[in-house]
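Students often ask what a holo structure prediction actually looks like on paper. The answer is less mysterious than it sounds. You provide the chain, you provide the ligand, and the output is a string of discrete structure tokens encoding the 3D arrangement of the protein together with S-adenosylmethionine.
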Amino acid sequence: MNWASLDWEVLDRLRQTFLSEAKTAGPYWHTVTDLGCYNLTYGERIGWKWDAMLAELKRRNWTPPAGATVLDWGCGSGIAGRRVLEFFGPANFTRLLVHDHSELAMDFSEHVARRQFPALAVGRAEPLSFRAEGPIDVLVLSHVLNELDETARAELAGLCIRARAVLWVEPGTHEVSRALGGWREKMRAVGLNVVAPCPHQGACGVLAAGNGRHWCHFFAAPPANLLADSGWVKFGQRAGIDLRSLPYSFLVFDRRPGATPPGRSCILGEPRHYKGYAKIFNCDAGGVAELMLQKRDAPELFKQLKHGAGPGLRRWKHAAGRIAATDPV
Ligand SMILES: C[S@@+](CC[C@H](N)C(=O)[O-])C[C@H]1O[C@@H](n2cnc3c(N)ncnc32)[C@H](O)[C@@H]1O
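The corresponding structure tokens follow.
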């Protein structure tokens, strides 16, 4: 599939589905072409979010358990599982399993993954092993949350209980991000530690009373020169998407201990810049709060934040809503 062979009407129909309640009414992939068109466009954009999230995991020195099996649940075209394998190297994994309630999606994902990783065992999660009690090494979830009914959420919760690690990326919308935050609390309750983005293991500050208008999200960088590509420009116009903005939310969990060192912070969303100061929305073990950073207090950091923040860990002291001292991490 390429821009020349792409079926734009298929993408129009998929967009209608994603925007409506139809997405929760059962499998919506009609043909393999649907998945090919999705994979080249929506799927690739999701891939850029995974790239940003995986880069952050690398900064935090996280690696998957040795020889892990990856289960990409709600795989669609399988972009998420493939991004994970590509990032850490397929030789570091034993198997890729895909699962979706659409047979077509599993066919497509298996086929593309076998072509991309010829030396890796690739298959679909068989219903028996799938419902078994054994552990799941790395559970990969991507853009599934707003399609799940109660039964599916219960199935997913059962998988999370068995997971050694969970890598989960969702859109950066207020609604989905806060729903993901609810899953963070469930995961902590079944013994999973938060690896990222949270700089602490406590309760989520965004979900605390009084913070209903906030949400935990970040922005990934789309490839440079994207707007010079006529295929992408047409896609952005037709789908009504601003290609320059790629908001996402994510959560990564692991059962292995290895908590974030204390005293770390993380910036949610993007800093807002004014003359001589910036405002950031800060998350740390004490909760979330808007903080002001004066340019004269940390000129280098101030300059750096003009290019965006990302989910990286920071270290600073703050008092009365103002960052007092910064310390690069
Ligand atoms: C928006 S697509 C995302 C696909 C892929 N994970 C990605 O990030 O590109 C959502 C996928 O979840 C699948 N899905 C929805 N409900 C499901 C369920 N109850 N069980 C398994 N898969 C489900 C859909 O068939 C679809 O492939």
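The chain has two domains: 8-254, 265-326.
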